[in-house]
Design a protein that fits this description.
heterodimer; A: 233 residues; globular; B: OB fold (Dihydrolipoamide Acetyltransferase, E2P); six-stranded mixed β-sheet; 20 strands
């Protein structure tokens, strides 16, 4: 209980004094997971819209694969990306291993199936006649897709939020491809793991609380956007 | 070139190996309303989607002003507008919904808003412009959906049973408004429905679609009065359809002038209105002598000449020319007793209450 209280006190102290290392780690977390979410949303919403509407043999299998991918173990993704980016690996010349870019790649791979899966559901829950009606009013296929996204905007925002949740909370892949290098690839999750293993429970707790706070603020903003114009609060 | 605005030629639409629509030829002329009737599953919606460029053609051609076009192209689709059976509105304001089609065509904002408001006004829902489309009743939503299509001033308006999801009074009001609106704006319209009354109220011409094939195209009198074959007759139910105009009120109804004849019908209709008098063949009685008014309660009596006798199931349909064509259904026994032959003089009678009126506009 003592550890818990002193951890809380330390956390508040770190937050109030804007500890430069903590600020730096927090900003990097936002940068890495934010970029990964953007990439995952772009790919996931496009692929999700296609899979929700297209009719071709093997579509069900693909959708099942996407749904399976929503639970991809981050360590497995980390291992795969590390093998690809390893200096002697197929993409070794890119020299991306142990950089934030490698972490973005790994997190995007984790988040993309999540965004795709939720997007499929979001587009499929729209009235199937909506696309037909838009085409019947003279929409090009692209215009019809944009209007469908607008109509499903709340669910698609939920898809992006779920993707961000998956990216910001994973730790296995970030450690494997980023290496948890101070000042370079250290993010809130990897720092928490490190501090815990060193026995610095109060710092670990402070970082954990910060991570929760960060997630909460972003989700709060997104939820506010999502729920605006619905009449209630 | 035959003056048609839109023509279908040798069209085949397939779903897998299944042929679901076959149209050797169908023409839509400028400013006309062509009503396509057929039972559910006959391929009416497929026909409409074919014209709208929403289904791939297995073979055949769509011609616009006599020129072959690719109906899947946006440039073609933008010359038409489609209204679905049930209104599908976006989660936006009513005005924004009507603006959608105009924005897709990149019409400048001010002009688009003016067109949208005018169209809403025409359908009597301008007061709803700033409401959310999600809060509308079924009738209101269908009016908005129609306003959205009409705001585009399409060369061809495509209507897919737009009244079938509405309750009876809402439907009647919308049908009357739409008829006046389409005639007023001279909008060329292809309208599919399973409801014959709707087809009669809106259609200048009627096409019958059965099992994916257009089986008969003609004026309402031709299609309903003289179905081309047994199957069409079974679907349309062979009605006597007599075009006329309301000229006077009578005891408990109105008098309709049809050519040189006057018919009494127990129904209400505004004076001067153009109407169809509808009458089932079973309600027409034939006799050889002219019964005196004291021996029959039927208000309508006409002398005429038998022009056709045809077997229809267990009954015979006898067509008499009384200044208009009148079909009577009689039993084989009556046919035998009356000893009817073509060219014979007969008297046809029917009660004022047996007939009903459908308004057909100007």
């Amino acid at each position: 209980m003592d550890t818990f209280l002193s951890g809380l006190r330390h956390a508040i102290w770190l937050l109030v004094h804007l500890d430069p290392i903590v600020v730096e780690v927090t900003l990097r977390t936002l940068q890495v997971s934010g970029t990964a979410t953007l990439v995952a949303s772009f790919v996931g919403i496009l692929v999700g819209t296609y899979l929700a509407q297209a009719r071709f043999p093997g579509r069900r299998l693909l959708v099942s694969l996407v749904n399976t991918g929503m639970g991809l173990p981050p360590v497995v993704v980390g291992l795969f990306v590390a093998l690809m980016l390893w200096r002697s690996g197929p993409l070794g010349q890119l020299r991306l291993i142990y950089t934030p870019a490698a972490m973005v790649i790994a997190q995007a791979i984790i988040a993309t199936p999540i965004v795709t899966g939720v997007s499929i559901a979001a587009i499929q829950q729209l009235d199937p006649r909506l696309r037909l009606q838009l085409l019947g009013l003279g929409a090009s296929r692209g215009q019809a897709a944009l209007l469908l996204w607008w109509e499903a905007r709340r669910s698609l925002l939920a898809a992006a939020m779920a993707g961000f949740g998956g990216a910001v909370s994973e730790v296995g892949a970030s450690i494997m491809v980023g290496g948890n290098i101070a000042g370079q690839t250290r993010v809130l999750t990897t720092a928490t793991v490190l501090e815990t293993s060193k026995g610095n429970f109060d710092t670990a707790m402070a970082l954990g609380i910060l991570l929760l706070f960060l997630s909460f603020s972003i989700m709060l903003g997104a939820t506010w956007l999502q729920q605006s114009g619905r009449g209630d609060r | 070139m035959n003056g048609a605005l839109l023509s279908l030629r040798e069209i085949q639409v397939r779903c897998g190996d299944h042929l679901i629509l076959e149209v050797p030829a169908l023409d839509l002329y400028p400013e006309e309303i062509l009503a396509v009737i057929g039972p559910n599953g006959a391929g009416k919606t497929t026909l409409l989607h074919t014209v709208a460029g929403l289904v791939p053609l297995a073979r055949g051609q769509v011609l616009l002003h006599g020129q072959a076009v690719d109906p899947r192209r946006v440039s073609y689709r933008r010359r038409l507008a489609l209204v679905l059976q049930e209104p599908v509105l976006l989660d936006l304001s009513v005005l924004a919904n009507v603006l959608v089609g105009l924005r897709l065509r990149r019409i400048p904002q001010k002009e688009a808003e003016a067109l949208a408001l005018e169209s809403l006004e025409r359908l009597g829902v301008a007061h709803l412009a700033h409401r959310s489309a999600r809060t509308l009743s079924g009738g209101e939503a269908q009016r908005v959906s129609l306003a959205r299509a009409l705001a585009l001033q399409p060369e061809v308006l495509l209507l897919d049973e737009p009244f079938s999801s509405l309750d009876a009074p809402t439907r009647a009001a919308l049908l009357a408004d739409l008829r006046d609106l389409l005639r007023g704006t001279r909008t060329t319209t292809l309208f599919v429905t399973h409801d014959q009354d709707e087809a009669l109220q809106l259609g200048d011409r009627v096409a019958v679609l059965l099992q994916g094939q257009v089986r008969q195209v003609g004026t309402p009198e031709q299609v309903f009065g003289a179905p081309a074959d047994e199957e069409i007759a079974a679907f349309v139910g062979v009605e006597n359809l007599i075009p006329g105009r309301v000229v006077a009120r009578s005891d408990g109804g109105v008098v309709v002038e049809a050519g040189s004849r006057r018919l009494e019908v127990a129904a209400e209709a505004p004076m001067g209105e153009a109407v169809w008098v509808c009458l089932r063949p079973e309600d027409v009685v034939l006799s050889l002598t002219d019964p005196s008014p004291t021996t029959t309660s039927a208000r309508n009596r006409f002398r005429g000449q038998v022009v056709k006798i045809a077997a229809r199931g267990r009954l015979y349909h006898v067509t008499a020319d009384c200044g208009f064509r009148l079909v009577a259904a009689i039993t084989p026994r009556s046919l035998h007793e009356l000893n009817l032959t073509c060219g014979q003089e007969v008297t046809a009678t029917f009660k004022a209450t047996a007939a009903h009126l459908i308004l057909r506009g100007q």
